[in-house]
Amino acid sequence: MHEQDAVVHFSLIGLPGSGKSTIGRQLARQWHLPFIDSDHVIEQRLGCTIKQYFAEHGEAAFRDVEQQVLAELLAATAPCVLSTGGGSVLRAANRQALQAHSTVFYLQSTPEDIARRLRNDTTRPLMQGDDPLQRLQELLAVREPLYLATAHYVVDAARQNASQVSRKIGMQAELAGLLTGQGSPGAAGD
Ligand code: S3P
After folding, report:
1. Does the predicted TM-score (pTM) go above 0.85?
2. Distance between CA 111 and CA 14 in Å, rounded?
3. Rounded to the nearest 5°, which phi and psi values hold at 81?
4. Crossing angle of the two packed helices 92-101 and 132-150, in degrees rounded to 10
5. The pLDDT of residue 51
6. pLDDT score for 111
7. 87 lines ligand 1 (CB under 6 A)
8. Pocket test for ligand 1, best of 12, 49, 117, 124 (most atoms within 8 A of CB)
9. Burial of 29: CB neighbours in 10 Å, binned 0-12, 13-18, 19+
10. Could you please report the per-residue DSSP string of 100-133?
């Protein structure tokens, strides 16, 4: 599944608003691993918000930075739980790097469920149109095959809260024997 000798991180992929950051943070705590949100690292590097960068430089420039940051994070020598931006799977190089250096969980949700969650969100540049539901449907039509092609595990995240999804991932990871040396979910008592 992975290149030999590669450090195996745990990555979360999925549409914006599917819960990647919240769930990633919970898993990292349970597994005693560092949590990294790639969007956060990108914003630190840019010195501005992703929304501002999109507005000034456009999406293609953002995707270049995203690719660079993801490659660096996935090459890191200490394992971590990584939450990625919803569009990270658009580039083949990112899909390849995610698969080769991490165990990838796709948080599969529905546009309806996500539109409900994001109804008050003003931070996501791709969600700021008049019809966020339609936008999410369009994004999913393009991305669903890419999420499925990149993921090692598909997790049903629709109509469930973050703790329920984290528990499911924890069980899957344990069943698959992915947690050797990582501690086991709940080992910290949380
Ligand atoms: C994007 C999703 C965002 C962020 C950027 C682009 C996308 O991350 O990377 O705004 O293309 O779907 P989240 O998935 O965390 O919202």
Report:
1. yes
2. 11
3. -100, 125
4. 50
5. 93
6. 96
7. yes
8. 124
9. middle
10. HHEEEEEEE--HHHHHHHTTT--S-GGG-SS-HH
Check residue 157 and give its pLDDT: 96
Distance CA(165)–CA(39), nearest Å, equals 21
**Cβ contacts of 112 within 8 Å, gap of 6 or more:** 133
Of all protein residues, the one whose alpha carbon is nearest to atom 12 of ligand 1 is: 86
> For 35, left (φ over 0), alpha (ψ -120 to 50), or beta?
beta
- pLDDT recorded at residue 180: 73
Q: What is the pLDDT of residue 77?
A: 86
Dmax over CA atoms of the chain, in Å, equals 48
- Which residues of the chain are under the pLDDT cut of 70? 1-7, 181-190
Quick check: helix, strand or coil at residue 178? coil
Specify the ligand 1 atom closest to the Cα of 18.
Answer: 14
Q: What is the pLDDT of residue 179?
A: 83
For residue 21, the Cα-to-chain-centroid distance in whole angstroms is: 7
- The phi and psi torsions of 175 (rounded to 5 degrees) equal -60, -40
Ligand 1 in contact with 126 (CB < 6 A)?
A: yes
Whether 85 lines ligand 1, by a CB cut-off of 6 Å, is yes
